[in-house]
Write a structure and sequence with these properties.
Blueprint: E1 2-10, E2 14-23, H1 27-47, H2 59-64, H3 74-91, E3 94-101, H4 102-108, H5 117-134
Antiparallel strand pairs: 1-2, 2-3
Helix pairs in contact: 1-3
C-alpha cells in the first residue's frame, strides 16, 4: 500500500499542492530518522539555553528563523535542512507538486473569478495530484 502526505501553499497569485508518496512500510523508518534529527536539534537548543523546542520541521519558519527556530543562526538552519534532505535521499520517497496561478485560471476557465480562484485552483491541483498518483 502506498501512502501520501500532502499539503497546500498559496499566496495572492499562486496555489500549489504537493507532497510525498511512499510505501506504507517505509514511513516508520523515515519518520524515525526524521524525529531523531529533530530530537538532536532540541538537545542542542537546550544546551544553548534556547527556550523553544522543535515540535516539527516547518520550512517557512526555519527559513525565516521565527517561532520554534527563534535564536538559531543561518549556519545551523542550513545544517538542519541538509540533514533532512539526506534523510529523504536515504529513504527515497517520491515527491510531487502541482500548481496554478490565479491569472491563468481566470483567463482559461470562464467560471473562475477573483472570488473563487483559490477554491478552484485547490480543487484542480488536488485532482491532478491524485490522478498522477493513480497513474
Amino acid at each position: 500500500m502506498l501512502t501520501t502526505y500532502m499539503d497546500e501553499s498559496y499566496n495572492h497569485r499562486t496555489m500549489c499542492v504537493g507532497g510525498w508518496l511512499f510505501h506504507e512500510n517505509g514511513w516508520p523508518s523515515l519518520e524515525k530518522d526524521w524525529q531523531a534529527r529533530i530530537s538532536y536539534e532540541n538537545r542542542i537548543s537546550q544546551k544553548k539555553g534556547l527556550k523553544k523546542v522543535l515540535s516539527r520541521y516547518k520550512a517557512a519558519d526555519c527559513a525565516s528563523l521565527v517561532d520554534e527556530f527563534e535564536g538559531w543562526g543561518v549556519p545551523r538552519q542550513i545544517r538542519l535542512v541538509k540533514r533532512l534532505i539526506e534523510i529523504l535521499a536515504k529513504h527515497r520517497p517520491a515527491a510531487f507538486v502541482f500548481g496554478a496561478t490565479r491569472k491563468e485560471l481566470i483567463e482559461t476557465f470562464p467560471d473562475v473569478n477573483d472570488k473563487n480562484w483559490k477554491h478552484c485552483s485547490y480543487y484542480m491541483c488536488m485532482f491532478v495530484s491524485l490522478a498522477e498518483i493513480c497513474e
